[in-house]
Amino acid sequence: MNEQDIDIPCPVCSASGQVKMISHIDEIPYFGEHTQVTLLCDACGWRQTDFIPAEGKKAGAWSMVIDSDEKLTARVVRSSSCTVVLPELDLQVNPGTSATGYVSNVEGVLQRFREVIDMVERDLLSDVEALDEGTRTTVTEHLATLQGMKLAIGQLGNPESNPLTLVLLDPHGHSMILHPEAKERDLTEEEIGVLPVGPDPAVFSSDEVEPSS
User: Fold this and answer.
1) Cα torsion for 100, 19, 54, 86, to the nearest 10°?
2) Where are the domains of the chain?
3) Contacts of 79 (CB under 8 A, 6+ apart)
4) Strands across the sheet with 19-28, in order?
5) CATH match for 2-208 among 2.130.10.10, 3.40.225.10, 2.60.120.1040, 3.40.50.720
6) What is the reported pLDDT for 157?
7) C-alpha to C-alpha distances, 43 to 10, 12, 19, 162, nearest whole angstrom
8) N or C: which end of the chain has fewer CB within 10 A?
9) For residue range 5-56, what is the model confidence (pLDDT) as tens digits?
């Protein structure tokens, strides 16, 4: 593991001399050697993690139909430049300016979707009493839709439930679904042109990260 101070102000609190970079090289099965890079600010606690493969990657998409409990355990590597999609539910999470990478499994990714849906539900419910009747009806319909989404996610693995498709779209090619039935393809030029790429990293390539001793 390698730790060093970074001469940049914190992008959140603007404190100088408080940002550090921690990096270590690891091997993820089927993904290959990669460097996990974490930037953190001692002043405000801001943190950003990303994954940089040892070999150059091209823009790519991964997808897998989730139709069994076994697939819920499949490993997922999601970088800060990756857009995650559940097309059947019309749900999409784009990388924002504070996006961070993570290694999880399919179930963990779905749990993140559930947490976002819960947050939207709470926001809608907190405002519903102050709304006029027409708007309240619309909000109630949105809440019912959100409940249906959570139910569809929660029933995955049930033989009687409709399967969902997990899709990763990564212009930097750093993301992957590690399962024999996961499918990989190149992103089209049109997709590359419209997909967000997440935050600007302080480390721009694996060549700039010193190997850990």
Assistant:
1) 0
2) 2-208
3) 50, 51, 101, 170, 172, 174, 175, 198
4) 2-5, 19-28, 32-41, 47-53
5) 2.60.120.1040
6) 58
7) 9, 10, 8, 47
8) C
9) 888 888 888 888 888 888 877 776 655 677 778 888 999 988 887 777 655 5
